[in-house]
Specification:
alpha+beta; three-stranded antiparallel beta sheet; elongated; binds zinc ion
């Protein structure tokens, strides 16, 4: 284990190590866990540790939350902002399409088609 990591808690399935700025989590198979971000409505933006071998299909299916549970208000605000971004992106994509079509039509008109 790295010199400046100290064991913070030892559960039956995992050991958590804390460094000055971040935590390093070891899965039940002894591999350093990876941090991923959950985007479900219930845990929007909440980070969790997963077995680092998970993405190669050889993981141990172990996972644990990195961030504490969020308040209802926090979830509500983040979900609302995400929906707003999505709707603005959709609007922008539609307008881009309309612009491209108008450009094409103008070109055709200029060339007398
Ligand atoms: Zn593992």
């Amino acid at each position: 284990m790295h010199r400046n990591r100290r064991a913070a808690s030892t559960e039956s399935s995992s050991t958590t190590f804390i460094t000055e700025d971040d935590m390093v989590c070891i899965c039940q198979s002894g591999f350093e866990a990876e941090t991923i971000v959950c985007w479900s409505d219930e845990n929007v933006g909440r980070r969790l540790y997963v077995c680092c071998r998970e993405k190669y299909g050889g993981g141990c299916d172990w996972k644990t939350w990195k961030d504490p549970k969020m308040s209802e208000q926090t979830k509500h605000v983040i979900c609302r902002l995400l929906r707003r971004i999505k709707s603005l992106e959709e609007k922008r994509a539609k307008e881009k399409k309309i612009c491209a079509r108008a450009k094409r039509q103008r070109k055709n008109f200029e060339f007398g088609y």
